[in-house]
Amino acid sequence: MAVTDAAIGRIKQMIVSGELAPGDRLPKEADLAERLGLSRNSLREAVRALALIHVLDVRQGDGTYVTSLEPHLLLDAMSFVIDFHRDDTVLHFFQVRRILEPAATELAATLMTPSDVEELREILASLPAEPTVAELVANDLAFHRRIAAGAGNPVLSSLIESISGPTTRARGRRGLTEERALEKTVEQHAAICDAIAARRPEIARSWATVHIAGVEDWLRRALA
Q1: Gap between the Cα atoms of 149 and 2, Å rounded
Q2: For residues 207 and 192, is the Cβ–Cβ distance under 8 A?
């Protein structure tokens, strides 16, 4: 494993230094192994590991390429791993959401244009008067996804998207079991949207914190 780690580190250094750019093809296996002072087996294991996390793309019969290295692509691997969570670890995801999403909401309140805000309002308006839990959760996901995109940081947006999935089931359970969960969600979404529209970043951040902390608090009580 230590030899494989070293091989991964050397390939990573070639990418970080700019020697290999997104889309570049790696040298032939024998040439690269000799150049890095590695056995071909170690190099092969390193390539396999980097392909799993979408840093490299192995094309059968063509060669191995550096991917686009776009944040959403690199975070797909993390999203896959965290899908295998236990219910009691969902709290950890909510804790991370409580850190990241208020920050994204604050940024969105300074960066979103009037047309962006109109899109956000359209998402809220698309929720039926008496939605099912599935419709409420879908609307909630779309609302937060649009805000994350409005923060103007693709890495932050991709991180939020990655940790959002594992919290979906908890959000649905809350909608089924907590009194006024629907009303609270609608009211808080409207308050967040109004704060973004008014370009009041601190207020937007506060409402986002209250909104996410409310679900987190419900989950703590449910698990207890």
Answers
A1: 39
A2: yes
Domain with CATH 1.10.10.10 in the chain: 2-66
- Classify domain 73-223 by CATH number: 1.20.120.530
- Which pTM was predicted? 0.63
| Confidence band, pLDDT 50/70/90 cuts, at residue 80 | very low
How far is it, in rounded angstroms, from Cα 223 to Cα 73?
33
Contacts 24+ apart (CB under 8 A), 175-180: 175/133, 175/136, 175/137, 176/133, 177/222, 178/218
DSSP state, residue 215: H
Q: Please give the share of the chain, as a percent, with pLDDT higher than 90.
A: 34
From residue 147, how far is each of 126, 169, 216 by CA, in Å? 16, 21, 20
